[in-house]
Amino acid sequence: xxxxxxxxxxxxxxxxxxxxxxxxxxxxxxxxxxxxxxxxxxxxxxxxxxxxxxxxxxxxxxxxxxxxxxxxxxxxxxxxxxxxxxxxxxxxxxxxxxxxxxxxxxxxxxxxxxxxxxxxxxxxxxxxxxxxxxxxxxxxxxxxxxxxx
Length: 149
Description:
By secondary structure, this protein is mainly α.
């Protein structure tokens, strides 16, 4: 079963279970998938990788919104955003920890031959492609800065 079909089935399950937060989060993902399909020059069917990118984007948006709400002392809204993150992040592969990232990024730095911060862009380009879906860009960037700095 494709990831897109899985999300559609989970929307039905959330409706039956009357799980409003999960339902709202999944409907948001479904909306983004429909927009991606109907955008100009898009393929008729989304691959699992495309759906994964959409889910990643939505998780990042919700985390950023939660941070913003926390900074404005709106814990109620931040909590809602974080609950939605939990509901949709089940469709992502397990994220690597910083400890797991370090050896992978070291190998990428060796492969690229980077020796200074000036070459961070090269490393980030390769690392972002190799670690897509497995780690957050901020975490990758922090490890690259630490190792090159």
